[in-house]
């Protein structure tokens, strides 16, 4: 064990099985159960990334101090007389950044504040209470876990998560945490309001791609608007405890999101970085706003016009951080394919069809450390 490393009393050697089973309990457990006046002073080897994968280690990291001002889309303006202009800005943001900040959205500060509060309270519960929701079943309506893919990752990342499936809500809800007592009520309200926001944004995105000229309802011979309304929604509550040596590890490794769009809510602590023009840039949190990003499915659906972008999460030594990602796509059993209207001789089809089951198979069988899944769907 590295000098000064303080670990739960039950843990004696980094190599023994007990140590490994302790890591499986997550980083919140690790931070809460140590014997050095409540302070963990070193990052255990399990979390130490190879030198080249660490933050601040590469060319691309040399400007991590530069904060990124993402394009800002005003949701209220999108609904008003300037809609055409806002849709142009939306298209530009999706093409140039794959990310934007959404301001003036319709979700109240209370709904947002309550969601962050119940998420914090959930991670403050005892480990035994949180552990009731641990599952390795990717189809489970609720799944508490740690790292990125804890059954596969050789090096763990400094994150615990609670994944909540919202489909169908009538079935999923009874599996969601019943503690804290208002968790379900707050999270259901939050999920239905983010779903509404997603649908409004998706409608604008389809318009920006020239796919809404026909009467609303039919997008092409395979898809209708109802597929979007009936689409899947997965909420991921991420908890990143403060970390004694944040330069050695990451809260989340570089990845892109699998769905059409992700709506991310973060607390006031920064940590999210996106890869832009070969550099890692930090996204400044704007209170009460959403960071929205293009997912792999939108890249496929738009035949590459809008591309998903790698992002990762840094941790820090003084503050823990909470974020809530709401990932939206078509229904789980629906094929995602390039929209036929965006494929012609000048723009040949660039991706194979895919569906959620293929994605799950992929993540279960490999370490999804990057946009590998999407790479596997590319035709050229
Ligand atoms: O915590 C963050 O800022 C990002 C989370 C994220 O990328 C995800 O949940 O996919
Ligand atoms: Fe993500």
Automatic annotation (TrEMBL):
Keywords: Cytoplasm, Iron, Metal-binding, Nucleus, Oxidoreductase. It is found in: Cytoplasm; Nucleus. It comes from the Eukaryota. It holds the Pfam family 2OG-FeII_Oxy. Involved in the regulation of shoot development and salicylic acid (SA) homeostasis. Belongs to the iron/ascorbate-dependent oxidoreductase family. This is Fe2OG dioxygenase domain-containing protein.
């Amino acid at each position: 064990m590295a000098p000064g490393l303080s670990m739960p009393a039950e843990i004696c050697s980094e190599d023994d099985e007990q140590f490994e089973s302790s890591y499986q309990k997550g980083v919140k457990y690790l931070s809460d159960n140590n014997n050095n006046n409540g302070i963990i002073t070193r990052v255990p080897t399990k979390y130490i990334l190879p030198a080249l994968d660490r933050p601040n280690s590469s060319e691309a990291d040399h400007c991590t101090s530069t904060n990124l001002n993402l394009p800002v889309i005003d949701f209220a303006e999108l609904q008003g007389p300037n809609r055409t202009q806002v849709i142009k800005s939306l298209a530009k943001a999706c093409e140039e950044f794959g990310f934007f900040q959404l301001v003036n959205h319709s979700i109240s500060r209370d709904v947002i504040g309550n969601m962050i509060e119940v998420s914090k309270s959930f991670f403050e519960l005892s480990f035994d209470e949180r552990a009731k929701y641990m599952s390795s079943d990717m189809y489970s309506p609720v799944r508490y876990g740690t790292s990125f893919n804890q059954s596969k990752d050789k090096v763990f990342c400094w994150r615990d998560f609670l994944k909540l499936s919202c489909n169908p809500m009538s079935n999923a809800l009874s599996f969601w945490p019943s503690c804290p007592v208002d968790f379900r009520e707050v999270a259901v309200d939050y999920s239905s309001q983010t779903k509404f926001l997603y649908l409004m944004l998706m409608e604008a995105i389809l318009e920006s791609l020239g796919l809404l000229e026909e009467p609303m309802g039919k997008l092409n011979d395979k898809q209708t608007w109802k597929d979007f309304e009936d689409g899947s929604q997965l909420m991921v509550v991420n908890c990143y405890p403060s970390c004694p040596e944040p330069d050695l590890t990451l809260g989340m490794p570089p990845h892109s999101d699998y769905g059409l769009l992700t709506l991310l809510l973060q607390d006031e602590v920064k940590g999210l970085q996106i890869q832009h023009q070969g550099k890692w840039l930090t996204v400044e949190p704007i209170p009460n706003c959403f960071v929205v990003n293009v997912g792999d499915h939108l890249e496929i659906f738009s035949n590459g016009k809008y591309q998903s972008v790698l992002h990762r999460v840094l941790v820090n030594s003084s503050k823990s951080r909470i974020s809530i990602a709401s990932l939206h796509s078509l229904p789980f059993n629906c094929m995602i394919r390039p929209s036929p209207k965006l494929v012609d001789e000048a723009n040949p089809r660039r991706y194979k069809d895919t569906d959620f089951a293929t994605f799950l198979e992929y993540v279960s069988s490999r370490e999804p450390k990057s946009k590998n899944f999407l790479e596997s769907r590319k035709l050229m």
